[in-house]
Structures are given as structure tokens and as C-alpha cells.
Amino acid sequence: MSLEEAFEETKKELTITTDQLNEITNHFVDELNKGASVNGGNIPMIPSWVLNYPTGNETGEYLAIDLGGTNLRVVLVTLLGEGKFKFSSEKYPIPEPMRTGNSPDELFDFIALNLHNFVISQFGEINKIEKPLPLGFTFSYPALQTAINTGVLKTWTKGFDIDGVEGNDVVPILQNSINKLKTPINVVALINDTTGTLVASKYSDNKTIMGLIFGTGVNGAYYDMANEIPKLHGKLPDDIVENNEPMAINCEYGAFDNEWKVLPRTKYDIQIDNESPRPGEQFYEKMIAGYYLGEVLRLILLDYYSKNLIFKDQNIKPLQVPFAMDTSYPSRIEEAKDKSFIDELFLESFNIKITSIERNLIHDLCILIGTRAARLSVCGIAAICKKRNYTSGHCASDGSVFNRYPNFKSRAHNALNDIFQWNCDTKDYPIQLIHAEDGSGVGAAIIACLTEKRLEQGKSVGIKSKI
User: Fold this and answer.
1) pLDDT tens digits for 422-446?
2) What CATH number is given to the structural domain containing 185?
3) pTM for the predicted model, two decimal places
4) For 445, which of 64, 237, 317, 419 could close a Cys bridge (C-beta 3.0–4.6 Å)?
């Protein structure tokens, strides 16, 4: 096989046709419905207990925190009404030893202390605060929620492993640490960042129909009607049933098609899955998320090398290290206006000298990988649109791939047009991907606002909560 023949074979494997887009989307709709059913499915379809749409007229001051992998982010959001807001924030690095331990006190006391100091920096003396500040807690770890103000941690991820938290509700653990310092804060909502993206964007733009993350991982959230969520039948409080209120659904659809019925996986995708910490899970995510795109490129190049098609008579040991290429590699390679940058990148990163033919090959492979990811990414969007009968609206999108990967947005729009056959100018497409508002900060604060109002009105915020 020649290098040209090998490339043509790879091109065929990585090209997603319109027929494939439609087949994947239709199966996606089935999987969304299955996930929302009583028996469930691959896609968790998690009820968030974020009830009601924001009107854009909400006002007031609300706190939010985001417990990330390496940093704690604290935000004060002032909702101004008319879809407007302002905010100030601080980041606090989480010390490495604090991510593991025998007791939750050290981490949650650290969060509470930084919250306390942040509130003082914003308001001055604590005793000047007339009533407790509502707090939205963005906790992007697997948690079971039976109410908006509860969250039982299933398992730590992102390098955290602290005894005494898994299997317990993290909200009272945090509230207890806050109470030790007598800080006037009430934790009223526990949220996922994708749900926050949906709500924050809908506050500023009432055309928002879903919130999306295209980053290290992928996810989507949208509003469904509470009475139309089969897995909640018989579990909803009377007031929610009577009003059939809208509830945000956190899809967690990176797990789409784990049964491998429609996704056109290549041998490279299969290798990535087999060598991952959790083989057989998150098939969809492993084909389109930022964590994996550089690895696809690396594996293709290693395959070509094994066939003696490229990098002849060179030591490629540095390239043989798993994930030696993060997604910045294909992103920067495709974006480079001067292709000599690719020569410099491979020499500096892997001590590999490339020829002009290899340079063009690598550039073209990056285009194929980026295009495939963008086209597959929209199947989740199209499926939600079909499930909810959306024919127009804005898809609020965030994440490093959406924000930084070259041509992702235009490729996604082209794929949506292939599915829906709008046949009009791109600017007139009725469904558009737009930049999202800050979900983990502003979104968490708005959700805290919506929850506070429900609690004040004595409305339910969960399966058994009627306060």
C-alpha cells in the first residue's frame, strides 16, 4: 500500500456522510427516549430539578462556586433584569494533598473559608448582610439528585479521593463547614455545569433551546415538561404535576451508542476505548471530545509508520507515548497559515524531521479528524430538536473545542443543514450554535435565584421535597 492509498482509506473511514448523520440522529432520538424511560438506557437523562425557565427579569445578588479539578472558583453575580448581569470572581488553587484524605473536613472547610473571605471582600463586614446569601454549587462529579438542593456523590473523579463523601449528600457537608464560620450563606442548589450553561444563556437570550459542552468531554442539557418524563411518573409532588412545569434535563450523552449500533468507529477509536480506564463506556465522547482528538492523530501516524510509509529511519519513541499529542496539536496544525510550523512542531516535540509530503499529509489528517468530530457532534443537537420538535432556536455552546478548534462551528452548521435540509444561507439557518454564557458561575447563581423563589413560595424542589 502506498501512502496515498493509505490516506484515501483513512479519509473514507473518517468521512461522515449525510446518510450516516441521519441514521445516527434517528438512533440518538431513540436512545434519549430510552434514557428517560422507567428502565433507563445508555444515556442517563438525569432530571436536574431545575424547574421553570428564567424570565430574564430576575434580580438580586447570588453566590456561586465551582469545584473544579484543580481550582475552586467563587463568583458573586448581580442579576440586573432585562437579561443583564454583572459578576466578580476569584479562583483559589486546591492544594494537591487536599484532594485525597480520610475526612471531608479539610476540603470543605477550605471551600467555606475562601467563601467567607470572598464575601468579606465584596460586602465588608459580615454583620452588615441583612439576610443569608443564596448559593448555587456547581459540582461536576457523578451525583444522584432527588432534589435541586441534594446531591449524593456516587464516585470521585478528576483525581479526588476523599473518604466519607461517596454515598453521602455533599450539600449538608458544605453547609456545615459554612456554619462553622457563621457566614450568612445558604446552599440552595446543586447543579451540573451543562445545566448551568442552558439556564445562564436562556436568562440572556430567550431563544436558547439547549446548553452544550464541547470540551474535554461532551454533554447537552435541555428543558422537558415534568409530566412527560416517564422515569418521574408517580414520583412528582402534586404541585409540579398540576402545573406540568418545565424541568432541565442533564443528558450526559457522551454515553450514546455504547452498544455500538450506529457509530462508525475506526480501529483507532476501538484502540482508544480498549486502552482507556473505562473500556466499553462513553463511545460517543471518545470519538468527538477534545481529550481524544490528538490521540486519534497520533494513532494514525503510528499506523502509517508501522507500514513504513512515513518517518522512515527515524526514532519515533517520543511519539509512541500514549496521549503525547493533546488536542492542541491538530488544532494548531490546521490553523497554521505557514505549514512550516508543522515541521518545527514535530522536531521540537518529538525530534522527528518531516518531509513536505508528510507535512501536507499531517495537515490533511487534522482536517479530517476535526471535520468528523464536528459532524458527529451535531447528532446530539439534531436528536434533541427532533425529540422536542424544535424547528428554530439557539444552542448555547461552550468548551475548549467549540471556542478554540478551527472551523468547528461552521462544520457543525453545515452538518445540521445536511440533516435538516434548510437550503438557505448559513446566517439564516433556523438553528444556530452560539457562544454560551458562564454556566458554572452565572448559571449556578440564576438557578439559586429560581430555587430560592420556589422555596419562598412553598413549592417543591425534588421528589419528596415540599417546603
Assistant:
1) 989 999 999 999 999 888 899 999 9
2) 3.30.420.40
3) 0.92
4) 64
